[in-house]
Design goal:
The chain is an alpha/beta fold and 486 residues long. The chain has a domain of 326 residues: Alpha-Beta Barrel (TIM Barrel). The chain is built from 13 helices and 20 strands. The longest helix has 18 residues. The radius of gyration is 22 Å and the shape is globular. The relative contact order is 0.18. The chain binds dihydropyrimidine-2,4(1H,3H)-dione and zinc ion (2 copies).
Length: 486
């Protein structure tokens, strides 16, 4: 038998093992793993790592921000940058703004993504207006189209939901098999800090970090976890930026609750000192939750090593440093009206590989788990994506673990116009990326057109047997047979 393509003699790495093998690809799928596989199209991968392509599960692309602006990347530029960075699949957000329906929201993002992406994609649905119709009709309809993850906000006046709404969405998600994600920061604490800073005339970008205290994250993560436990619904805390927040995730998991965690490269590699720059330059480093400090970086790495985090995602939120983006409200606008977020979809994997695997902090298999397999599992894509197994999509990235490079805005291939990791030296870079068996990136060139990427309907969330948590008040044997369990 001959295959369409054979990747020969590479060191194949999955989340659980490493082995030297040939991979035979036919019809866009992995058709065989073995020795001496034959094809007219053979790639010599000896000395290289052959891994499932990265799944970027936290990115804002063609999305209107909470402050009104539009991200600098659309599905074409965002997916191209992701592909150059070793990814083969992206899951950005479709944001419901108040007054919009969910179906209308998903239709809008379908129209933005269709024919535009070079990589397969889905969306997480941001729910900001959980009306009765949304809860009873539109969310169930979203599941039917394969949208099996939601994001809720506990801050931002225009996006946040209150605790009762949070519980309603968790209940519906649980009933249908969706994973809820949460931006966990206490809105009142942020407002209180912001008012005090502004009253003293402290309005430059660097004060953004002070306005979002670590305690605001800790409080909100604790509250979110308690709400998820009450409903016994799965919950993923996105962009955890504090050791206190990470410890809450760790404790909840150890107690058996279906709680998951994500952190991002910016919290591992940058600090709020990076925002202390003249004029508005610090705005480039404004994200929420904000950058913290060096001890926090070390503590978050320790949590990665302890298994607290399932995924390391970029939280790519690209806004240009001009009037189309960060400076939309003028050249000396207060931090409160500057869009939050930074680019990073192309840098995530090189940074995590170089600083994680290269510096001995994580194994290559842990790198695969954190960058691909766990996202596939959590978001209903495994085993089609996220692993190297017969029958899976041939979404594969070949890495040269010795290749050296430097992160620059130009080589990120996105539209942000800057990189927060500018000049960072990395060792270990992707050299060839396959999506469904086709070369997307090979030796620095793009080989597919916009539209190669297809929408991926996703399967239900599967807790994999985790036992969960039963609040006594919802135990029908204890609550006078009222059986009010969600
Ligand atoms: N939350 C995100 O997840 N991304 C950008 C800004 C924000 O608040
Ligand atoms: Zn967020
Ligand atoms: Zn985000």
């Amino acid at each position: 038998m001959t295959f369409d393509t054979v990747i020969k003699d590479g060191t194949c790495v999955t989340a659980s093992e490493q082995f030297v093998a040939d991979i035979g690809i036919s019809g866009g799928k992995i058709a065989a793993l073995g020795k001496d596989l034959q094809s007219a199209d053979v790639i010599d991968a000896s000395g290289r790592l052959v891994m499932p392509g990265g799944i970027e599960a936290h990115a804002h692309i063609a999305q209107n921000s909470a402050t009104g602006g539009m991200t600098a990347d659309d599905y074409t530029s965002g997916s191209i940058s992701a592909a150059y960075g070793g990814n083969t699949c992206i899951i950005p957000f479709a944001a419901q703004h108040r007054g919009m329906g969910v179906t209308e929201t998903l239709d809008l993002y379908d129209s933005r993504a269709a024919g535009a992406s070079v990589l397969d994609y889905s969306y997480h649905l941001i729910v900001s207006d959980p009306t009765e119709k949304v809860l009873t009709e539109e969310l169930p309809a979203a599941f039917k189209r394969g949208i099996t993850s939601f994001k809720l906000f506990m801050t931002y006046d225009k996006m946040l939901v209150n605790d009762a709404q949070f519980l309603d969405v968790l209940s519906v998600a649980k009933e249908h098999g969706a994973l809820t994600m949460v931006h966990a920061e206490n809105a009142g604490m942020i407002k209180w800090m912001t008012d005090r800073l502004l009253a003293k005339g402290l309005k430059g970008p660097k004060y953004h970090a002070l306005s979002h205290p670590a305690l605001a994250e800790e409080e909100a993560i604790h509250r979110a976890i308690c709400m998820a436990k009450l409903v016994d619904a799965p919950l993923l805390i996105v962009h955890v930026s504090t050791p206190e927040g990470a410890a809450l995730v760790q404790n909840a998991r150890q107690a058996g609750a279906m709680i998951y965690g994500e952190t991002c490269p910016q919290y591992l590699f940058l600090t709020r000192e990076d925002m202390d720059k003249p004029d508005m330059q610090g705005a480039a480093f404004m994200c929420s939750p904000p950058l913290r400090d060096k001890p926090t970086q070390d503590a978050l790495w320790a949590h990665i090593q302890a298994g607290t985090f399932d995924v390391v995602s970029s939280d790519h939120s690209p806004y240009r440093m001009d009037e189309s983006g960060k400076l939309a409200n003028g050249p000396d606008a207060p931090f409160t009206v500057i869009a939050n977020g930074m680019p990073g979809i192309g840098a995530r994997l090189p940074m995590l590989f170089s600083e994680g695997v290269g510096k001995g902090r994580i194994t290559v298999s842990e790198f695969v788990a954190l960058s691909s397999t766990n996202a596939a599992r959590l978001y209903g894509l495994l085993p089609q994506k996220g692993t190297l197994t017969v029958g899976a999509d041939a979404d594969i990235t070949i890495w040269d673990p010795e290749k050296r490079g430097k992160i620059t805005a130009a080589n990120q291939q996105d539209n942000a116009g800057y990189s927060v990791f500018e000049g960072w030296e990395v060792t270990g870079l992707p050299v060839t990326t396959f999506s469904r068996g086709q070369r997307v990136i090979d030796e620095g060139a793009l080989h597919v057109s916009a539209g190669h990427g297809k929408f991926l309907p996703r399967a239900k969330f599967d807790a994999g047997g985790r036992r969960g948590y039963l609040a006594p008040e919802l135990d029908s044997t204890l609550n006078y047979d009222a059986d009010i369990a969600p």
